[in-house]
Fold each of these.
Amino acid sequence: MEQVSTNRSHGGTQGVYTHQSATTGTPMTFSVFVPDHEPGQRLPVLWYLSGLTCTHANVTEKGEYRAACARAGVIFIAPDTSPRGDDVPDDAAYDFGKGAGFYVDATQEPWSAQFRMRSYIEQELPALVAQHFPVDMDRQGITGHSMGGHGALTIGLRNPDRFRSVSAFSPIVSPLNCPWGNKALTGYLGPDKAAWREYDACALIEDGARLPALLVDQGEADNFLHEQLKTGLLVMACRKAGIPATIRMHPGYDHSYYFISSFMADHVAWHAERLKA
Amino acid sequence: MEQVSTNRSHGGTQGVYTHQSATTGTPMTFSVFVPDHEPGQRLPVLWYLSGLTCTHANVTEKGEYRAACARAGVIFIAPDTSPRGDDVPDDAAYDFGKGAGFYVDATQEPWSAQFRMRSYIEQELPALVAQHFPVDMDRQGITGHSMGGHGALTIGLRNPDRFRSVSAFSPIVSPLNCPWGNKALTGYLGPDKAAWREYDACALIEDGARLPALLVDQGEADNFLHEQLKTGLLVMACRKAGIPATIRMHPGYDHSYYFISSFMADHVAWHAERLKA
């Protein structure tokens, strides 16, 4: 692992790091904010998965999480959204290929060798992080935005032993039921929709996965709400399954970091409460 | 004035606007954050002047001021740092020409027609803002970063009737005594250093200008501190003049928005206290 940069910020250290990933076969970049802490102390960690077109940089620059993380003593980790590099296949559209890994392990060509963001987030990156940062891996939470909200929900639902807390901003709640999801999962996983269910938050809940609690914030002026995000499907799935979900709709707010940053401190505090020692 | 964009954020509206400036003869873009307020209510306003290479966008995206401004009920305005456009003269370096207006009215060719950021900030933009936003122009504060810290200090010192509160992040405190200042003021104002004094915070104080109070934050790991910023000169000037200045040095912090954002809420609260009705 190489350090790209570190900057002191909000009583902690904001770093950016890169490493050669065995999972994707490419270099991968991610950011980590570590609040000041006692020597030897291990801190809970909040993972943040980003949305379409983003790298680690978007939330690192615009997410406004550092003040809240420093206050709560929570480490914040932001991975990239796909493998990168000249030899990585891509698609001309913004919603498939680079910047659009959808947190799946692709099975279709030419994607399957490198587009393995599920394994990267579930296995390789946590192992690397545990080795290099003062994290308490028994206290992990996960959140994300849009495609990354989908990532947080599905990874959280599939790994209840690893994540004590799961939340999301404007998540894609059911790739089975939206154009972004249909396009990406057809491309990465093939047309058999049975293979998609482990990458669909609503289907995972329908198939028996559970969360002890859930916090979701969604802007009502989000121009992707009705066609792509379909928050209502998640509301129904949680109700049916008895998952105690707080799903807040915010009049006037859109899909941007102006929205995310407005509610970031709430999410950090919500996770911190659940990640207490 | 045209609205470029508005986004709901932190219980307020973050807008970006553009207008044809009579002062610079070019279109000028600026951002305004307006917290929610009662109909007819007029709010105090905090001006933020940006540093070299920046536009309105840097602080708007990375400054983390909205939560604090919404809490305090303060409007936040971020202008650009120079005229822009294909017919605006420029210099190959980052520290002169476009993005480097230094908040002066240039007297030298080819700059004098358009590089008039002093008049733009002191006269044209306030008049435009007063016309279009719910501002209480009797309650104005000003701050800024680096070159914009220089702008905030000099404009604040020259206009004590307009600004009740002045602060700065990592300001250039004396263009007379640093390479950035020497290059820019020679280029914009000519070699006669007598003409520079009204654009030099330390010289203005030496020549009799006063502030009722001053807040400055400066990172000790700022790589421009010793050659360009020279905070110590401002400390001495304030001490000699009896200006009650709080000038805080922060170990480990650098010149970036990771530093600015760490202390932004402090500055907003400090101004809000002084801008109370």
Amino acid sequence: MANSKFEYVKQFEQPDNILPNTWVVVRIDGRGFTKFANKYGFEKPNDKRALELMNAAARAVMAELPDITIAYGVSDEYSFVFHKTCVLFERRSSKLVSTIVSTFTAYYVHYWPTYFPDTPLSPPLPSFDGRAVCYPSVQNLRDYMSWRQVDCHINNLYNTTFWALIQLGGMDATEAEKTLKGTYAADKNEILFSRFSINYNNEPEIYKKGSVVFRDYEPVEPGTHNAAAEADSLAVPVQQSKTQNETDRKRRAKAPIVVEHLDIIKDDFWDRRPWLLSNKPGKIPKEV
Amino acid sequence: MANSKFEYVKQFEQPDNILPNTWVVVRIDGRGFTKFANKYGFEKPNDKRALELMNAAARAVMAELPDITIAYGVSDEYSFVFHKTCVLFERRSSKLVSTIVSTFTAYYVHYWPTYFPDTPLSPPLPSFDGRAVCYPSVQNLRDYMSWRQVDCHINNLYNTTFWALIQLGGMDATEAEKTLKGTYAADKNEILFSRFSINYNNEPEIYKKGSVVFRDYEPVEPGTHNAAAEADSLAVPVQQSKTQNETDRKRRAKAPIVVEHLDIIKDDFWDRRPWLLSNKPGKIPKEV
Amino acid sequence: MANSKFEYVKQFEQPDNILPNTWVVVRIDGRGFTKFANKYGFEKPNDKRALELMNAAARAVMAELPDITIAYGVSDEYSFVFHKTCVLFERRSSKLVSTIVSTFTAYYVHYWPTYFPDTPLSPPLPSFDGRAVCYPSVQNLRDYMSWRQVDCHINNLYNTTFWALIQLGGMDATEAEKTLKGTYAADKNEILFSRFSINYNNEPEIYKKGSVVFRDYEPVEPGTHNAAAEADSLAVPVQQSKTQNETDRKRRAKAPIVVEHLDIIKDDFWDRRPWLLSNKPGKIPKEV
Amino acid sequence: MANSKFEYVKQFEQPDNILPNTWVVVRIDGRGFTKFANKYGFEKPNDKRALELMNAAARAVMAELPDITIAYGVSDEYSFVFHKTCVLFERRSSKLVSTIVSTFTAYYVHYWPTYFPDTPLSPPLPSFDGRAVCYPSVQNLRDYMSWRQVDCHINNLYNTTFWALIQLGGMDATEAEKTLKGTYAADKNEILFSRFSINYNNEPEIYKKGSVVFRDYEPVEPGTHNAAAEADSLAVPVQQSKTQNETDRKRRAKAPIVVEHLDIIKDDFWDRRPWLLSNKPGKIPKEV
């Protein structure tokens, strides 16, 4: 029995390769996580265990996929960035998205008991959806990252105040919502401070800044590299010797993957870590 | 702090909605499963526990996503079919693919200890990639399903013979490969029977036919429905009353999701189950 | 000097092949034709010469591209239909669209002096834009064609009444518009008849129905063929012998290309001309 | 009669907007121009009238579409470049391609009698197909342009030698082809010089370099601008005041559109004309 009679159906597969020489961001989002958070009693406004579980899963994704240069997570979402020169899976969108989503989900379920030892998972299980977007210039990429971090800040300030009004102020959700309607950041800071003696600046960085995951090398002096301009002016394919590729691979494998809660909007973060934009591994930190 | 300055980055998201009025097949495949199977000592040529774990995960996916009408699995792959009228997630390809891949992975990891109680998972964890393909006509869809089942048959006959030569015949892999080179189905049947007294026809159906998962209603007499022609001639959007939709939803929820090992190439399977092509729920079987 | 250094830029071309086994409609529209019509003094509400020039260009397009099975034109737009089995240019969308748009434009400019002998073209010249849309089922395709013909009817009834109010009733554009605001078809018929003794039914068919262009064979008795169901149930690729293909090609080349003004919404038009949906050439009419 | 019943067919139109912040190149090619050139007796290896007709049509396209910043033509092909910030037609690919192809064709047919006064066009008429490709970085764009100009050089040197062997050397096509097989550029130069006393360097620039079309402003001193780096680092949308836009529009309209035959591979061409990459109009030359 030959299979050829039916094999014509393969023609219906349509290519979805992402435009070369662009930054690829794969963002994943928890599906129905409001309900999921309620089911497992996540703390409000932030559940530290849940965030650390997200970070552990993201770290595992980066360890399995060295082509990812940086990831940023907040709440139940995570964005993974492939360098513009990346050719993994021939840049097929569905393959990049599904691999990240699947790997992330596997670790999320697997590590669950570590972070929630007392509440085992039961169906319906947590799941994530994902999409890929590509950005031509470094500025576009950084604006994307800034967009997510500003969103983190706006939502966290709102949620912190909203839940303070409820948990400490005794309001119900409707009253709290009404109180916050039309307020600016300064108003919310004022409510927190004057009513509840909470200085928002002293809130944990993981809540205010989200989490950024990357391979760590020795930081450089700002002003000594121009990785952004170099990256922008690139034409692919980049020609590198096999020896160079091998050296890069080894240094990347040695570099620790860290989870930090830093400002990624200002230049400083990027200036000190030129490898994020250049894709050239830096020096392995001595203490590691 | 307004987020508007960065929000322009949303413009870079490109729509990926699948053409309306076509059948959508999402196929997922295990990533690096040869290595994975070795790590956990999967039996050769087929590991019943591994297949049943795949089937359990597929069943769970169908239970969570009632828009899926039928699924077919073999080895470490599974194909899920959305009816041509389906509008779930506005038919966005990345959303359909990532949701299925993530849900499947979550159950695969979660159910692992049920099927492999003695070998706990450890990193790197199992993961799957996926892609969506769309088919305009019923014939195209059925040819796709036939293609996968023929593939199952071809591979299983080969693997059964290959491993018999090794496990029962004492050959090494190279010898077995050489022995099978250029042989036809009849030759392999003959090798199995004359050398090892194995009648391939008596092998378990799950290995020979793969697994088909669907909602089960009372089968109808072949020839009494013409669901294929009806489905082909459809123009979407289908206009149904809310009452009808609600009734359909309830009947679908009541229908048991079954896993069978049947021939899906011949007409009979489809003729007896018109709901698979019509998307109109049938009668709930009395015994359930 | 080798060209290889720069040839990598070819990788940036992204495939745009249209899904197999679907009907492809390429619709072209005149660019800025309101202004263009004013410049050349087109008659209102319909300019017979301009419509016949459109039809002549469409006829020429069909003669140069035998893969087109039917075309429908109204005002400054024309829709060309490729059969679902068509593989011209590997179904690349930009190639199909640009070829039709270019060929149409060439004939429009070339035939201009035949239809407008006294007003030679001068820059800016007439031009057209185009797009391709694909339809999975015969019903979808016929609904598309019906959509365009209903649009023709609605616009022509409006325009006929609007210009009667101005040209015969002495109104200015604002008064005419106000008079017609909120009126139904019956109202417009009544205005035409009672005020201007115009029976809309007696208006020329080319204005009321638009123009349909196709290869003409001997019509068949309605009910004797079921081309729609056959077309819908097709799986591609269609296997035909070379001899059959050659015979088809010859009969198609012999068939006259006609321009008619018929109802293409009702079944009758399609029932009598099964070759439009089956793509199998009919009998050459004897009188030709 | 309402049209709503059929209007659902509009849903089948799929968006084809090109990724923002990338350079868009629309390349058009003559369809079947070998045959066409024979029909109208084009001179070999180059027909000056035919090339000038192409250039006249390209110039007209640029005059009608001010969003095009530069165009490059050789033989029967032309590439038109839209600046990376261009938002014409919402960057819809089919609209950009079809508009350029149609406008070009209209002028080609319209201007034909100016360049070929003695040989009127007759069906089948000349036509062009087209496609859009997008390039993220200035280097990618310049490499694309270089690719086309190197192609021009390679083909012209080959054709010049090939036709010299035939027209001056008395060979037939087969002999000429055989003579050139495996030769390098230096060999062809030598054949031209030693056998026919032709110094290839003295051949007309239009044949050796092709034609580059652009808006001309006063050239600047190389080294005084860095338009490439500025363009690469851009994030869109570019925020410009209405007044600035209006000023730009006027200066662009005043700038003469020139057709030159220059080296566009080296930096000098681009360094002297920063407006090509920056999209900021320069100074209008005084002599104009």
